[in-house]
Amino acid sequence: MTVQGRGSGSGTDVLIRKVDSHLAALRTGLQGPELELAEELARCLRELVVATAHSSAADRGLVRAAVPYFVLRRESRGKLLPVRSLAAAQRVVNKAVRQLGRPDLLVETPRRDRTAVDPALR
């Protein structure tokens, strides 16, 4: 029996598929700044997954924790399980980005149209 070393390909592929699948589901229900944030989070997570594929177990663990936080966005069931917002996922992803020393991947909050926010600018 031959034993193969743990390859980065399958684990990486699974994480990226989870991110892409969740983003596809979000695209059906989100629009505007929320959709932009979801797409930015997905882009960042994909890049982190690939960038850490051959990194230390600690670095891979940070990314492996951030992916499910984005993907497992729970639906509210009364007071027991609050809805996990994209902003909460953004905080977790940005924390991982900082710990990995990749400030270039920080996910910024999309800006809304200023005229919609401030009626004085109309």
Give an account of the 3D structure.
The protein is mainly α and 122 residues long. Helices cover 60% and strands 0% of the residues. It has 5 helices and no strands. Helix 2 packs antiparallel against helix 3 and helix 2 runs parallel beside helix 4.
What proportion of the residues is helical, as a percent range? 55-70%
| Biggest β-sheet description | none
Low-confidence spans: 1-7, 114-122
Strand fraction band? under 5%
Rough shape?
globular
Please describe the structure with a list of short key phrases separated by commas or semicolons:
globular; 122 residues; single chain; mainly alpha; disordered N terminus
Summarize this structure briefly.
The protein is mainly alpha-helical. It has helices spanning 8-27, 32-51, 57-71, 86-99, 114-117.
How are the elements arranged and paired?
Layout: H1 8-27, H2 32-51, H3 57-71, H4 86-99, H5 114-117
